[in-house]
Amino acid sequence: QKEVEQDPGPLSVPEGAIVSLNCTYSNSAFQYFMWYRQYSRKGPELLMYTYSSGNKEDGRFTAQVDKSSKYISLFIRDSQPSDSATYLCAMSGDYKLSFGAGTTVTVRA
Amino acid sequence: EAQVTQNPRYLITVTGKKLTVTCSQNMNHEYMSWYRQDPGLGLRQIYYSMNVEVTDKGDVPEGYKVSRKEKRNFPLILESPSPNQTSLYFCASSFGGGLYEQYFGPGTRLTVT
Lengths: 109, 113
Fold this sequence. Notes:
The complex is a heterodimer. Chain A has strands at 4-6, 11-14, 19-25, 32-38, 45-51, 54-58, 61-66, 71-76, 85-93, 96-99, 103-108. By secondary structure, chain A is an all-beta fold.
């Protein structure tokens, strides 16, 4: 079983829709929870991170962490074609970083 | 400009021919790491380094070597590449060990025939 599970999609939504992405994990030692965005032929770039449980909002993006359920989510409101990318969840603990497989999102104009 | 650079960006080689992929960062980061990205498997950590002369294995270290002689550089060495090492490789760096803000390089696409 993988340490971090993420539905690979692909996910296709119309412009303006809410995009919902999620990951589950098994390692209780994870303390930081991140979402990265990766455009085609580029390296991942950090969208946002959360420490421990709770919600964090940054513009159209909201990250949620539920450590009791070992479940994290990312919501993208008012999605734009420029949001089309692969979204990777990541979690860290003990100087190591574990990634989900990534979900490919396409926002149709 | 703050960045992580990797070279080469693309490489096609043959089985058994030693190669090195270089990685350099200009942000004075202590932590550096190498990942490989394969379809359906996501990013998997190969090796990481918490500082100069301090390195440790990640999840998939077999067939790879690293060294950290200077803070800014962290080369990845494949002593005897095999076709199962065909992949997209990323170098990344960050301050400290929290790893919550990693900066990634542009990637190196390696094909071993």
